[in-house]
């Protein structure tokens, strides 16, 4: 009976070791994939963000862009009909 218990413990130890090795190999592959991801410098990203903010009109900031025409205001009140919709 002692040898059966020992062989079972050895098999479980091998299974745990194999599982740890598989996790490490998977993590290593993930890190290798991350090396191939194109990077952007912080200064380049900041420049792009500033350019976007300067070129994109924001109706929620009228002090910068001026008043928004009611027809163009996506956040303005909409015309409501006088009927109700049932679902």
TrEMBL record:
Transmembrane segments: none annotated. Pfam families: G-gamma. It comes from the Eukaryota. Residues 68-87 are annotated as: Disordered. It is found in: Membrane. Residues 17-87 form the G protein gamma domain. This is Guanine nucleotide-binding protein subunit gamma. It is a peripheral membrane protein. It comes from Phycomyces blakesleeanus (strain ATCC 8743b / DSM 1359 / FGSC 10004 / NBRC 33097 / NRRL 1555). The keyword Membrane applies. Keywords: Lipoprotein, Membrane, Methylation, Palmitate, Prenylation, Transducer. PROSITE patterns: G_PROTEIN_GAMMA. Its main location: membrane. GO terms for cellular component: heterotrimeric G-protein complex. G proteins are composed of 3 units, alpha, beta and gamma. GO terms for biological process: G protein-coupled receptor signaling pathway; pheromone-dependent signal transduction involved in conjugation with cellular fusion. One of its GO terms (molecular function) is G-protein beta-subunit binding. InterPro entries: G-protein_gamma-like_dom (IPR015898), GGL_sf (IPR036284), Ste18_fungal (IPR041848).
């Amino acid at each position: 009976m002692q040898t059966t218990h020992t062989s079972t413990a050895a098999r479980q130890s091998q299974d745990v070791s194999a599982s740890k090795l598989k996790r490490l190999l998977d993590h290593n592959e993930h890190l290798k994939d991350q090396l191939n991801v194109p990077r952007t410098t912080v200064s380049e990203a900041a420049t792009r963000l500033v350019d976007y903010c300067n070129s994109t009109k924001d109706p929620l900031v009228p002090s910068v862009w001026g008043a928004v025409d009611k027809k163009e205001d996506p956040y303005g009140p909409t015309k409501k009909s006088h009927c109700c919709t049932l679902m």
